[in-house]
Amino acid sequence: MELDAKSNHILDAALPVFVRHGFRKASMADIARAANISRASLYLSFGSKEELFRAGSTRAHARTMRQVEAALGGNGDVFSRIESAIAAFHHGLIAPFASSSDAVELFEVNMALAKDITLVARATLVDLLAQALADAEAARVVALDRVNSKPVDIANVVVAAMDGIKHAPGDEAKLQAAMQLFMRLLRAAIS
Amino acid sequence: MELDAKSNHILDAALPVFVRHGFRKASMADIARAANISRASLYLSFGSKEELFRAGSTRAHARTMRQVEAALGGNGDVFSRIESAIAAFHHGLIAPFASSSDAVELFEVNMALAKDITLVARATLVDLLAQALADAEAARVVALDRVNSKPVDIANVVVAAMDGIKHAPGDEAKLQAAMQLFMRLLRAAIS
DNA sequence: ATACAAATGGACGATTAGTGTCTAATCGTC
DNA sequence: GACGATTAGACACTAATCGTCCATTTGTAT
């Protein structure tokens, strides 16, 4: 699933159109105009509006998971690396749409058109977090037996917390603060 | 042309919908939803989308002209009062739409549906400015003969400058700075 | 409880906008 | 000029929106 330069250019242009108008009200004409190409040649790159959206979701997920892996492979202790990974996930797949007044529709459409990719990415995130925690446990950096759980359990809770926090009311700053508080709790619990 | 509470409520709700989607893509269903009423009862207040838009434009112009008159009747010298009046005009009738990506469409639709109101307001603005300048001249505060012109000429130039400056590229701050510079020029020229 | 007005959901035909497809014409590059 | 890429424009089809209508519900006053 590699994209040529033109397709990438189109997806770059399409994102803000979807963010502004939502899926239903974003027309192929709008997207073509934003990409400075004709509607005809838009259909040369993507066979349908749904295919285009799916390609955008796929690209965003691929990019984001690369960022997540980089964050987990970076410097710092397990907790700060996990925090960075969560931040990368949020920044790549949630924040861009949070500002949209059609965010709900966009997430629904995404689940309708790219459910597989979305769920795989979510599962991969959990796996990666679990792996990082398992490594830390092996290195005696964390003690998961203190909470009587396995790495994958903790990973699931972390992701679920991120999910819950993102749905809670409040602006971007409050959200980040809540996530950091959660990470401090985690650190205190299993360090 | 008095509006009841419900109509005012609807127009309040409709404005951000028009700003976000433009006229064409803003549906009556969108507006009804924003106003928390049914589409059916939206049509009880306004017979059509065009009538609703026109009512909104009319209300905005009426409110703004009241602000303009208040500014010209306020404290300070002629120049600062004129500056306030221009700012009120801009704040009431231009700034709310400047942020919209469909600003061009909205201004076009406004000229199609509420041209009369818009042109009368513009003419009234010129008249009010000319009146203020004439008063200042009578009080020997300004000397229009220095530029060999009549109050109405100056007023027209001020409004035209505002128009031109608003169409120039740059953000809100640059625009305000440009207008203030223009006012300093005027002050220097006819004080 | 009854009467009345206001508001609603739902359906309607008519109209418009959008989708996806196709072709002939144009553009840019070799 | 030849070539592939891109385009405008038209096409049939579908979906969305408009403006209208009415039966029903909701709220309020009596």
List keywords for this structure.
homodimer; 191 residues; 79% helix; 0% strand; 10 helices; DNA-binding; mainly alpha
Polypeptide structure, described:
The first copy, chain A, has about 190 residues and is an all-alpha fold. Chain A has a domain at about 60-190: Tetracycline Repressor, domain 2 (Orthogonal Bundle), CATH 1.10.357. In chain A, about 80% of the residues lie in helices and about 0% in strands. Chain A has 10 helices and no strands. In chain A, helix 1 (about 5-25) crosses helix 4. The longest helix of chain A has 24 residues, at about 50-70. The N and C termini of chain A lie far apart (about 40 Å). The interface of A and B includes residues 20, 21, 25 and 101 of A. Chain A binds a DNA duplex (30 and 30 nucleotides) through helix 3.
